[in-house]
Each structure stands twice: as structure tokens, then as C-alpha cells.
Design a protein that fits this description.
Elements (H helix, E strand, L loop, with lengths): L6 H27 L8 H11 L11 H4 L12 H17 L3 H12 L4 H21 L6 H12 L6 H10 L2
Helix pairs in contact: 1-2, 4-5, 4-6, 5-6, 5-7, 6-7, 6-8, 7-8
Length: 172
């Protein structure tokens, strides 16, 4: 029997993915609160560090509506779970040096006196703009453009990076 990907099936699947990720964060958050950080495996500890670096999102880690997969809708806030997920992606890129340009940009930002956290947020900003451009243009993620933009941002002072990103995405 063949199962066809209907719009309803896609929505249910997306909801389950959101729910699974959010419940993972909730589990990690509860372990942190209970002082059981050391009982987490290495991957969970890495995610726990990201969660702990974002105390402003703590109320969301226990919000039952959000944990059940409800879409995050807010007029004035970025989705905290998406933020954590993007943070995790940026951290993975820097640690693995894949792409190398991400690690070099983060290192450049840190050498200029900014925190690693701030460096990761710059990478996240580039990453989210790249993902949005892919969806908006109905094209695959342009890895070469991403690497080029990371390298371009490394050539300027961190205070100018936001302008570089804005020019890149308002001109196209």
C-alpha cells in the first residue's frame, strides 16, 4: 500500500518533529533544574549548554502548548526553539569546521573582543537569511554563497557585519 504525502500528513509530520525537538529541550531543561547535568550524554550536554546560555527562554521550555507542537506565533519575539536549533547548527559548524569559513568567522569575532556566543549569533543570522532566501526563491540551499558570505564577513570589523548581511539580502 502506498501512502501519499497529503497536505494534512505534512502538517502532522511537521507538528511531530516540532514536538519531539521541544520535548527533548524540556527533558534537558528538567535535568538541568534537578542538578543532573552530568547524567546527560555528550550531545545532550552540548544542547544543555546552549539552553543555559538562553535564560530569557526558560518559560518556553515548560509551556505545554508549545511542547505539544503548536506553531510559535508572536508579534515581537523570535521562536525560542528555532533560535536554540539554529544555535545548535552554528555551534556544530564551528566545532566541526564544516564549513571552515564558519569557524574562521567565529574566531575572528572572538579575537576582536566579542564572545563566542556573539560569534555564533552572527553565523545564525547569516544562516537564517540563507535558509529564508532558499525558501523564498524555491531553490536549494546555496552552500557556496553561504561560504562566500561567511568569508566576506570575516574581512570586516564585527560592528560592520550586520550591514554586510543586509546589503547581501536586500540586493537580491
Amino acid at each position: 500500500r502506498i501512502i501519499f504525502m497529503t497536505e494534512n500528513f505534512t502538517k502532522v509530520f511537521e507538528n511531530l518533529k516540532r514536538q519531539t525537538y521541544r520535548k527533548k529541550i524540556n527533558k534537558i531543561w528538567n535535568m538541568i533544574r534537578e542538578g543532573k547535568f552530568n547524567e546527560l550524554d555528550n550531545k545532550e550536554q552540548k544542547l544543555a549548554m546552549i539552553v543555559m546560555n538562553h535564560p530569557e527562554y526558560q518559560e518556553n521550555y515548560e509551556n505545554e502548548d508549545l511542547l505539544n507542537g503548536r506553531e510559535y506565533i508572536s508579534d515581537n519575539e523570535f521562536n525560542p526553539f528555532l533560535h536554540i536549533s539554529l544555535h545548535e547548527m552554528a555551534e556544530d559548524q564551528v566545532i566541526s569546521e564544516a564549513p571552515l569559513e564558519a569557524a574562521l568567522l567565529c574566531e575572528h569575532i572572538e579575537k576582536k573582543g566579542y564572545s563566542r556566543h556573539e560569534g555564533l549569533h552572527v553565523i545564525m543570522t547569516i544562516l537564517i537569511n540563507m535558509i529564508f532566501a532558499s525558501f523564498a526563491n524555491n531553490k536549494p540551499f546555496d552552500e557556496q554563497r553561504y561560504k562566500t558570505l561567511l568569508a566576506k564577513c570575516k574581512k570586516v570589523d564585527p560592528s560592520e557585519i550586520q550591514n554586510v548581511i543586509q546589503r547581501e539580502f536586500t540586493s537580491n
